[in-house]
Amino acid sequence: MILSVLMFFIGIHFMIMLLAAGYRITDLWYRIGDFWKGILARIAGLTLLDGILLSTLSGNALSSFAWGQLCYLVFHIVIFWVARMGIFLMETRRR
User: Number of folded domains in the chain?
Assistant: First the structure.
């Protein structure tokens, strides 16, 4: 049980790191020529480490890790779109 909970939170942590690495592209777009190698290396490294973890885990640890990643990804997408809809509604009310 404790291992499953730990792997769930590790899965969340890995998804946060992968999303942050992806957002680094837009954050550093003004100097992408200087940072593209580091950004690409970080994304590739995290993806490789994630793949290694997914291929070596088994049983409850694997499902907990994958569920942690999936749950955070869904949470992130839903929060993003809810925020976008809120901004859209506030702007339409102002007009």
Answer: 1
